[in-house]
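User: Reviewer 2 asked us to show a designed sequence for the structure in our supplementary figure. I'm pasting the structure tokens here. Could you produce the per-position amino acids so we can include them in the response letter?
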């Protein structure tokens, strides 16, 4: 692994030099610590991402290229993505659907279900695709605070993680819904609460007033794979659905509702 040690050393020195230069010209950089000899701290993820992208792209052809590493002539998958700082440099990478283990478990279950619903109108989408936040504000800080991962209903509403703070585990942050006709509402306090809500098999009907789960009519049939989902939920996470998914929503709204309103109001201006 000498090649990797050399790469790590080169990376640290080059990026630290870049950071040192940036700190003298960029107000977004403040002095703290990045390694033993170069005290630095970036206040924005985008700056780190751009530095890594530029660094890797500018390396001489010594077995390093976007998408792969070579050692002794053998291709080694490139670890991490410069735009995804949730994966530490040097960590093993996989073809996982997302950086959230619970979602990856759900993805595997969903693939076994084929094209059949296991919760009314819910299905995973490309992780991190546009959430709808860009329709409220062009500010990148606002857009980046939401990470889309699922379709909430058949009419086009989306579920997204809301980065309410700097905690690294997305499974622990609140889940919001972007309504297909407008509105952003708190749905759950964390991913596992959402998984429990999905176990109720109720329809998500968001509006400008917020999120809302609607109970099915007595003659409505459950989603085709709903029974399988309940078994999976219990076996995988030892979770069961609540009697009413709105109970968990009310708890989450009590904790995060005002914070979300203030966050949206900070960026959104009605025309």
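Assistant: Here is a per-position design you can include in the supplement:
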């Amino acid at each position: 692994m000498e090649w990797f040690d050399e790469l790590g050393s080169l990376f640290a020195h080059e990026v630290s030099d870049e950071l040192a230069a940036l700190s003298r010209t960029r107000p977004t950089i403040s002095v703290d610590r990045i390694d033993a000899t170069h005290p630095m701290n970036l206040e924005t993820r985008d700056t780190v991402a751009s530095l890594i992208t530029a660094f890797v792209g500018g390396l001489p052809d010594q077995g390093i290229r976007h998408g792969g590493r070579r050692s002794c002539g053998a291709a080694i998958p490139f670890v991490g993505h410069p735009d995804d700082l949730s994966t530490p440099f040097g960590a093993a990478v996989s073809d996982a659907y997302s950086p959230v283990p619970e979602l990856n478990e759900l993805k595997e279950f969903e693939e076994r279900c084929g094209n059949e619903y296991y919760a009314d109108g819910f299905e995973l989408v490309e992780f991190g695709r546009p959430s709808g936040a860009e329709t409220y504000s062009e500010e990148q800080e606002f857009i980046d605070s939401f990470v889309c991962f699922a379709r909430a209903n058949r009419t086009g509403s989306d579920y997204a993680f809301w980065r309410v703070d700097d905690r690294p585990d997305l499974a622990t942050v609140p889940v919001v819904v972007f309504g297909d006709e407008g509105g952003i509402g708190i749905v759950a306090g964390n991913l596992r609460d959402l998984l429990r809500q999905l176990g109720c098999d109720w329809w998500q009907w968001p509006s400008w007033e917020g999120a809302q789960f609607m109970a099915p009519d007595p003659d409505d049939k459950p989603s085709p794979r709903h029974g399988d989902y309940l078994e999976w939920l219990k076996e995988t996470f030892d979770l069961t659905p609540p009697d009413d998914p709105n109970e968990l929503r009310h708890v989450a709204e009590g904790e995060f509702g005002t914070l979300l309103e203030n966050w949206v109001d900070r960026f959104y201006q009605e025309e």
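For the response letter, you might also mention the following. The longest helix spans residues 2-25. Residues 101-267 form one domain.
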